[in-house]
Design a protein that fits this description.
- The chain is of the alpha/beta class.
- It has 2 domains: 117 residues, Periplasmic binding protein-like II (D-Maltodextrin-Binding Protein, domain 2); 85 residues, 3-Layer(aba) Sandwich (D-Maltodextrin-Binding Protein, domain 2).
- It is built from 9 helices and 11 strands.
- The strands form 2 sheets. Strands 2-3-1-4-11-5 form a 6-stranded mixed β-sheet, sandwiched between helices.
- The protein starts with a strand and ends with a helix.
- The chain binds 1-O-pyrophosphono-5-O-phosphono-alpha-D-ribofuranose.
- 1-O-pyrophosphono-5-O-phosphono-alpha-D-ribofuranose (PRP) binds next to strand 9 and helix 7.
């Protein structure tokens, strides 16, 4: 039995399409209601979790495969996995965003930046040689500059609608994001045959 931890929501839906393409049973999953663990006809066990928890289940050795966004991987300190495929869905990017005046403005103090992704933000500002104060928020990050708490944000942009609706613009694109297929290194060793069977199938359609 192979256990796949899938990020709940949009990623989950896209992943079913891919499973269907390679002939895996998705009927049981699509008909699920609030169950969090489903065993398919192909002897695959799917668990449905939040993005960060995909990594926790892999780290704890209870999931063999993880389906998770690159944003989560980049933000996490956990590195004990193999990233096998870019699944090419859930495409978006990280950006520094603010009011359009940001670029010309001369800041007489350390800039303040709000984000849900402090590690990515720190890495970005380090790479451009700026020392800023990072303020961690759990969501609705766009609010921070609006209410004057920060000078900008580092956040995910998909359609750009949220920035637009809140009067903000992209100041700098940081990096592209998409959904990744990751494998537990220990499973690769001890369940090699089963894992490779699945990997080969996915490889054909990706
Ligand atoms: C994400 C992200 C942006 C928004 C971007 O937020 O943090 O706010 O989506 O999407 P867009 O470019 O298509 O408008 P999410 O929906 O996860 O909610 P949150 O702000 O509560 O984290």
């Amino acid at each position: 039995m192979i256990r796949i931890a899938v990020t709940k929501g949009r990623i989950e839906k896209e992943f079913y399409k891919l499973m269907k393409k390679i002939g895996l049973d998705v009927a049981t999953i699509e008909n699920k209601k609030r169950e969090l663990l489903i065993r398919t006809e192909d002897n695959i066990e799917m668990i449905f979790v939040k993005a960060n928890d995909v990594l926790t289940f892999i780290e704890q050795g209870v999931a063999d495969i993880g389906i998770v966004g690159k944003d989560t991987l980049e933000e996490s300190d956990f590195v004990d996995y193999d990233e096998l495929f870019d699944l090419k869905f859930g495409k978006c990017y990280f950006a520094l965003a603010s009011y359009k005046e940001y670029k010309e403005k001369v800041f007489k103090r350390r800039k303040k930046i709000a984000t849900k992704y402090p590690n990515i933000a720190k890495k970005y500002f380090r790479s451009i040689g700026e020392d800023v104060e990072i303020i961690k928020l759990e969501g609705s990050v766009e609010l921070a500059p609006i209410v004057g708490m920060t000078d900008g944000i580092v956040d995910i942009v998909e359609t750009g609608d949220t920035l637009k609706a809140n009067g903000l613009v992209v100041i700098d694109k940081i990096c592209e994001i998409s959904t990744r297929f990751i494998v537990n290194k220990v499973s690769m060793k001890y369940k090699a045959d089963e894992i490779y069977k699945i990997i080969d199938k996915f490889e054909e359609v990706i």
